[in-house]
Amino acid sequence: MKALICGCAGVTLAEEERAFFAEERPWGLILFARNVESPAQVRALVSDFRALVGREEAPVFIDQEGGRVQRLRPPHWRDYPPAAHFGELWARDPAAACRAARAVTWMLAMELAELGINADALPVLDVPVEGAHDIIGDRAYARRAEVAALLARAAVSGLAAAGVAPVIKHIPGHGRARADSHEELPVVEAPLDALRAHDFPPFAALADAPMAMTAHVVYAAIDARNPATTSRMVIHDIIRGEIGFNGLLMSDDLNMKALRGPLAERTEAALAAGCDVALHCSGKLEEMREVAAACPELSGRALERAEAAMAFMQPRGLAPDAREAEEWRKRLLAVT
User: Fold this and answer.
1) Which end of the chain has fewer CB atoms within 10 angstroms, the N or the C?
2) Per-residue pLDDT averaged across 11-21, rounded?
3) pLDDT higher than threshold 80 for residue 123
4) Is position 182 annotated as part of the catalytic site?
5) pLDDT, position 164
6) Separation between Cα atoms, residue 266 and residue 125, nearest integer Å
């Protein structure tokens, strides 16, 4: 299987896509709103992908955070509050905020599990600062690193109870970025001491997570030339070293405008820097072929990390009470 997670174009797989998946056998699939129509359709799409790559439990990812970033929506699925609402509850009642984060995230994850989706790009561990671009905004749990870490840990526990693996993002921190990396390359000028005090701690607190997604952000104090995704210094010295993350590391979407050059070069640069898996999201087949051609087979330490991540895709821990989860969900959605 290739060191690749990719998307697809629509709600069913076209014949050319089917041939691509059967031949290239990417490690995982990521779904977007364009791939979602109904529960039965999503289950069929997930099953079709797994049959083509020949792995019954092949990872299927989605960005289902709640708030602005939610691929599954009514009428078939519930709306969920953004992460910041848990932080607002924390200011009044920390213990209740942790209970709510676990319960509501479990409910969200149960909806994913029912569709066969076994990985969620959640939690967002970025800690915003004054003046940062609002691309993170209310997707963050809090503006205090220690609060963000505790609420994210509760959310991870909720995912685990449903058998959905978390992907912490965007390591080592997107909270200071003054630009949207979907559109341009952010450059963070903060000194290393400030990053260590504010940006890195939530990731260090969840360094035992099975998967993480990189930030397409330049940290001038570490590597002034390359964003984290393609920086060997950031990945080896900071993410693997200081932060201590040893799980599977995937790039953020290689098609984002923060990166430059042909997709094959972006892919090679990310993997050479230390990413285990390349992520490509557009669902455009010609682009997928270019990225796949630059991806090696999963092997060595990257394969070990992928297998360890798969072990998280089974329910673990007691499930919260469903009625309590629904009450918290509705209450938090009412926050203005």
Assistant:
1) C
2) 98
3) yes
4) yes
5) 98
6) 25
Domain that holds residue 261: 78-276+300-333
* 128, 29, 319, 168: CA torsion to nearest 10: -20
Q: Categorize the per-residue pLDDT at 180 as very low, low, confident or very high, splitting at 50, 70 and 90.
A: confident
> Cα(336)–Cα(333) distance, rounded to whole angstroms?
8
**Identified catalytic residue from 138, 199, 223, 252:** 252
- What does the alpha-carbon distance between residue 167 and residue 62 come to, in Å, rounded to a whole number? 10
Q: What integer pLDDT is reported at residue 336 of this predicted model?
A: 60
How many structural domains is the chain composed of? 1
15: in domain: no
**Residue 270 within any structural domain of the chain:** yes
Q: What are the pLDDT digits (tens) for 190-215?
A: 999 999 999 999 999 999 999 999 99
Residues 6 or more apart from 93 whose CB is under 8 A from it?
A: none
- 56 assigned to some structural domain: no
In a domain, 203, yes or no: yes
Catalytic residue (choose from 79, 93, 182, 321) = 182
Q: Is 252 a catalytic residue?
A: yes
- Model confidence, pTM: 0.96
Q: What is the CATH number of the domain that holds 128?
A: 3.20.20.300
Q: Which among 45, 104, 77 has a CA at the least distance from the CA of 331?
A: 104
**Using an 8 Å Cβ cutoff, are 157 and 228 in contact?**
no
